[in-house]
């Protein structure tokens, strides 16, 4: 209700009128109770949706930060291995190592050898350039032939403690060792030398001219310094920390909470947590005063660490206790190449802080609205103003919450490119390197529009740039970019012009966010909605059409008996019946195309499925007199697939091939190893010697309802693509010199 001062009847709404009409009172309270219930349900639904979105956003941020940090670690290790391989292959290094191998295996003789001095002088530049803290040259009997420290020469090398590590390197592998306590002081995160630091080694075999490994070259790494630099970049917000730990759960990078750990007694004063602090669950929040009754070494590893050391990557946004006992959310992974795990965690309270603020504001607003609504039954003339005021407060609160969420997501990093007024690249950040697939050194000085923007999209950038004189920041626009591997990811761009004190342009800052996967998800959701609608319509049509076609079939049979003596009429009736069957089959194809693909996976041999599909096409083969050639091979063709669905795919391809081939035609099927999303897969190539596809046919072969056959529905290959993609595979058309070639790639598991 709304009070209208021009309505004379409103003056009657007072105590006297309520006394005269007491039935209004229960009606008013019933309305208030009903409104309260509806508002509570609405608030619950809104909060549930916001929380679900918060969980997705938090998981995406944690995963993005973790993946970025892990990729940076891997990139650093690749450089380490390249250094080791390069110097182990040096002829000068080999010559000096041979000289040391001829010396007696004692420190005095090895140190006195001129080869020791030459080798140190030879390797000193790379050690200084990369920041390595030492070297080892190790003989086949595990004796240290050379080192930057005289005390290590002639002794058994400490890497013998790493199991078969040296054995594998002598066998020809270039490896990164597991973290271990250093036997000498190493630089910490501040660059100061400290005892007890973790150390790691990258090792490569030194081979003679015959390719035989004669010794091993190692560079000593200080992960407490080198890896800490990368881990610090993964810190988000106030409590977000990215850190690494080894197989036993011990930290190998510095904790964000170094001082706090000393305050709560988990670390002694001036004690370094590297390889001393274990990621164990104390059972309660030690920061808030909880003190466990059992020794720390008896505590279990945290839920995250337990999964990580077992080799299981994961994300937990429900919350678990970290090594301080504080409830956190996190993402983690174990890296076999790095030999340690990485985790990105944030305090649960900070991660869900924006959501909790919204919830408190929403519940407060709901309470006030309920009170306001009840008050409206008595004071209608003031209720509207208060409701508008509260609605504005809630809107501002929700907008503030959305801003905080956007800020949290942006901490994961965006593409930032700084261009000169002539569009030359002046700055190219790490995220830009990753997305563009180009190194910063290679990109600097290049014309960004010519090098990285597709020609049809350049006008978008130029239009946004022309709008900048009136507004220092452009509106958002979407544009793809060109990458080194010929991909075209889609980015959401904002342009900002930088001006000097005189208002002259210094350049343009282009900030882009990769929205490729987001767009693909929208397209998939839209396709799913369309397919669901098609499925409902086709199911209804098929149901209704069966009844109508059954009646018409009965009539045709009765008509056939009446015209048995008229062959022309019987032929027409047969044609009508064939058309009816084709119509029903078309309905079934449309329904099957629109329905969700349900898979019953099991280990199956693809060659067995191929022969089953070939047998089921016996009638079609007889009409064409075609044969299938399957070359013998020793490949493992076992994949986890739905055999019925994959046979359907193969049968569709073979049926098209039989139609395309002339009489006596040949279909060749071969198998090969492949990869799908870096996972092992099998590629099956089905080729025929019929006529080649036109350009239009190649581009539209997997398009629904496209066909070149007179009786085809145009859904066979479209359904095949949906089945293959549901398996996580891909189906494409090759470019043979003759005929048609279809490639079906399926993951093994």
What's the main sheet like?
6 strands, antiparallel
Kindly give the count of domains.
Answer: 6
Helix content: 40-55%
Q: What is the CATH architecture descriptor of the largest domain?
A: 2-Layer Sandwich
Q: Class of the largest domain, according to the CATH hierarchy?
A: Alpha Beta
**CATH topology of the largest domain, anyone?**
Heat Shock Protein 90
Strand content: 15-25%
Shape: globular
The whole-number mean of residue pLDDT values reads 82
Q: In CATH, what is the homologous superfamily of the largest domain? A: Histidine kinase-like ATPase, C-terminal domain
Tally of helical runs:
23
| CA-atom Rg in angstroms | 36 Å
Distance between the termini: 63 Å
Please report the total strand number as a whole number: 24
Q: Regions with pLDDT < 50 over 5+ consecutive residues?
A: 1-20, 405-412
Class inferred from helices and paired strands: alpha+beta
Concise summary:
The protein is of the alpha+beta class and 749 residues long.
Describe the structure.
The chain is an alpha+beta fold. It has six domains: 8-61 and 353-410, no CATH class; 89-225, 2-Layer Sandwich (Beta-Lactamase), CATH 3.30.450.20; 235-351, Beta-Lactamase; 415-514, PAS domain (Beta-Lactamase); 519-594; 602-747, 2-Layer Sandwich (Heat Shock Protein 90), CATH 3.30.565. 46% of the residues lie in helices and 19% in strands. The protein is built from 23 helices and 24 strands. The strands form six sheets. Strands 1, 2, 3, 4, 7 and 8 form a six-stranded antiparallel sheet that branches. The protein has a five-stranded antiparallel sheet with strand order 14-13-17-16-15. A hairpin with a 5-residue loop joins strand 7 and strand 8 (213-221). The longest helix is centred in the N-terminal third of the chain and has 65 residues, at 24-88.
């Amino acid at each position: 209700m709304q009070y209208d001062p021009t309505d004379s009847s409103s003056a009657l709404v007072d105590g006297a009128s309520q006394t005269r009409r007491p039935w209004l009172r229960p009606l008013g309270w019933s309305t208030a109770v009903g409104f309260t219930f509806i508002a509570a349900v609405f608030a619950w639904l809104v909060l549930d949706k916001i929380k679900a979105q918060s969980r997705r956003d938090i998981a995406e941020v944690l995963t993005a930060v973790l993946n970025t940090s892990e990729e940076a670690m891997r990139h650093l290790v690749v450089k380490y291995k390249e250094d080791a391989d390069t110097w182990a292959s040096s002829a000068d290094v080999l010559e000096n190592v041979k000289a040391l191998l001829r010396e007696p295996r004692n420190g005095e003789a090895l140190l006195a050898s001129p080869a020791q001095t030459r080798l140190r002088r030879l390797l000193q530049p790379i050690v200084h350039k990369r920041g390595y803290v030492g070297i080892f040259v190790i003989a086949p009997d595990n004796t240290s032939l050379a080192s930057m420290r005289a005390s290590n020469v002639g002794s058994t090398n400490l890497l013998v403690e790493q199991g078969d590590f040296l054995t594998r390197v002598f066998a020809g592998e270039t490896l990164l060792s597991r973290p271990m306590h250093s036997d000498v002081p190493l630089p910490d995160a501040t660059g100061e030398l400290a005892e007890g630091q973790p150390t790691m080694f990258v090792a490569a075999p030194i081979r003679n001219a015959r390719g035989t490994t004669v010794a091993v070259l190692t560079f000593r790494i200080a992960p407490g310094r080198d890896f800490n630099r990368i881990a610090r970049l993964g810190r988000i917000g106030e409590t977000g920390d990215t850190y690494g730990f080894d197989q036993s759960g011990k930290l190998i990078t510095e904790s964000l909470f170094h001082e706090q750990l000393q305050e709560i007694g988990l670390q002694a004063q001036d004690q370094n947590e590297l390889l001393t602090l274990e990621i164990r669950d104390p059972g309660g929040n030690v920061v808030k005063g909880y003190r466990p009754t059992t020794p720390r070494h008896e505590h279990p590893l945290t839920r995250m660490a337990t999964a990580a050391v077992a080799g299981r990557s994961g994300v937990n946004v429900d919350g678990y206790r970290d090594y301080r006992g504080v409830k956190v959310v996190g993402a983690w992974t174990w890296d076999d190449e790095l030999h340690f795990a990485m985790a990105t965690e944030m305090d649960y309270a900070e991660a869900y802080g924006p959501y909790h603020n919204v919830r408190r504001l929403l519940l407060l607003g709901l309470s006030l609205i309920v009170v306001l609504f009840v008050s409206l039954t008595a004071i209608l003339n003031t209720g509207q103003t208060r409701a508008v005021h509260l609605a504005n407060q809630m809107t501002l609160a929700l907008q503030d919450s959305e801003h905080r969420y956007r800020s949290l997501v942006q901490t994961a990093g965006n593409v930032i490119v700084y261009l000169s007024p002539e569009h030359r690249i002046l700055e190219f950040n790490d995220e830009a390197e990753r997305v563009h697939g180009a190194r910063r050194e290679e990109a600097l000085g290049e014309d960004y529009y010519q090098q990285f923007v597709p020609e049809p999209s350049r006008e978008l950038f130029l239009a946004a740039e022309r709008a900048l004189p009136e507004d220092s920041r452009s509106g958002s626009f979407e544009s793809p970019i060109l990458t080194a591997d010929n991909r075209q990811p889609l980015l959401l761009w904002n342009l900002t012009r930088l001006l000097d004190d005189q208002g002259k342009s210094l350049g343009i800052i282009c900030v882009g966010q990769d929205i490729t996967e987001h767009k693909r998800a929208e397209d998939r959701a839209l396709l799913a909605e369309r397919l669901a609608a098609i499925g409902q319509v086709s199911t209804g049509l098929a149901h209704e059409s069966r009844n109508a076609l059954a009646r018409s079939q009965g009539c045709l049979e009765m008509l056939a008996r009446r015209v048995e003596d008229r062959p022309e009429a019987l032929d027409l009736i047969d044609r009508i019946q064939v058309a009816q069957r084709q119509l029903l089959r078309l309905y079934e194809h449309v329904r099957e195309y629109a329905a969700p693909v349900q898979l019953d996976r099991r280990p199956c041999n693809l060659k067995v499925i191929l022969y089953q599909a070939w047998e089921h096409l016996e009638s079609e083969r007889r009409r064409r007199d075609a044969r299938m050639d399957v070359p013998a091979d020793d490949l493992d063709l076992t994949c986890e697939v739905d055999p019925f669905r994959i046979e359907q795919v193969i049968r569709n391809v073979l049926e098209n091939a039989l139609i395309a081939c002339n009489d006596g035609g040949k279909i060749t099927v071969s198998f090969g190893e492949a990869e799908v999303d870096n996972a092992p897969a099998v590629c099956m190539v089905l080729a025929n010697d019929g006529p080649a596809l036109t350009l239009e046919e190649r581009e539209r072969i997997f398009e629904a309802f496209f066909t070149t056959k007179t009786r085809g529905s145009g859904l066979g290959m479209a359904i095949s693509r949906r089945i293959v993609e549901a398996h996580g595979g891909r189906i494409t058309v090759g470019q043979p010199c003759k005929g048609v070639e279809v490639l079906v790639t399926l993951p093994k598991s």
